[in-house]
Amino acid sequence: MADYESLQRLSAAVVNDLTEAGKSVSTAESCTGGWVAKSITDIPGSSAVFQYGIVSYSNGAKESILGVKNETLEEHGAVSRPVVEEMADGVLHLSGADIAIAVSGVAGPDGGTKDKPVGTVWFAWAVRDGAKTKIDTYCAHFTGDRDLVRELTVAHALQGVLERIES
């Protein structure tokens, strides 16, 4: 379980490790509403490593800002691996960052389906690798109320950034 102090520690580690590595990060967020970006920018010195965050809550924003294809959204839905991959790739290339994180999920209390129940969250981390982009994805199934699902999503997103800085 995440809490404010653990999010602060994770965010401080992200800022510290990005600074030491000379790298930067950007975010594309849906269900977290910008909480990943807020967590990072709460840390002094984050302006040296944080490019920007996009809150693409609607499908229209995912398409028009991040370049997510309408066909992808229609075929797979906003909470899906292909959509977060396109979100992460889009914000990585828009921002010029070295690492991008994208999240899209069903935080609840409603909106869940049999295939995508409340607590389902897709993550994508895009990392520049020379002229190529490497994208890793993960699907989590968190339990708890809306706030807890979002908090756990932020923690998992930050932990994933840390792992990619180190690799």
Polypeptide structure, described:
- The chain is an alpha/beta fold and 167 residues long.
- The chain has one domain: CinA-like (Maf protein), CATH 3.90.950.20.
- 44% of the residues lie in helices and 23% in strands.
- The protein has a 5-stranded mixed sheet with strand order 2-1-3-4-5, with helices on both faces.
- A hairpin with a 2-residue loop joins strand 4 (120-129) and strand 5.
- Helix 1 packs parallel to helix 6.
- The longest helix is centred in the last third of the chain and has 21 residues, at 146-166.
- The radius of gyration is 15 Å and the shape is globular.
- The two termini are 25 Å apart.
- The mean pLDDT is 96.
Any descriptors?
167 residues; alpha/beta; Maf protein; five-stranded mixed beta sheet; 6 helices; 5 strands
Structure summarized in a few sentences:
The chain is an alpha/beta fold.
How many helix segments? 6
Kindly, what is the distance between the CA atoms of the first and last residues, rounded to a whole number of angstroms? 25 Å
Class by alpha and beta content = alpha/beta
Stretches with pLDDT under 50, minimum 5 residues: none
Q: Summarize the biggest pleated sheet.
A: 5 strands, mixed
Tell the overall outline. globular
Question: What order do the SSEs take from the amino end to the carboxyl end, as H and E?
Answer: HEHEHHHEEEH
CATH class: Alpha Beta
Q: Count the strands?
A: 5
